Amino acid sequence: MYARISTYESGYPEDYDAGLASLREEVMSQIQGMPGYRGALSLIERSTGQSVSITLWDDEDALAATRQGAERIRESAAATSGSRVLSTVEYEVGYADLPIPPDPAAGPESASPS
């Protein structure tokens, strides 16, 4: 699994709720439709106006294949919310203790407990 981590700074920390609503209603459907998508986190620090987004990908190929599309989405979302992207880095996930939902491509039987 691989992760793409972006940090942002907003001139308007009080606008986070509107930005999070936009993330849930518009941005996530675009990201979730990308090949190899495994999950996402949005971390915010309202008092400083800084935030971090983390997206998780199946493998290095999925990370590379989504790089340009993710950049376009990231820049558009930042502009819409009045934020600016400070940095974006990519990592291999060395360890994760996350409940990963079943792979939807595996079919409905993958959702039932064994």
TrEMBL record:
Domain of life: Bacteria
Protein name: ABM domain-containing protein
Source organism of the structure: Kocuria dechangensis
Record lineage: Bacteria, Bacillati, Actinomycetota, Actinomycetes, Micrococcales
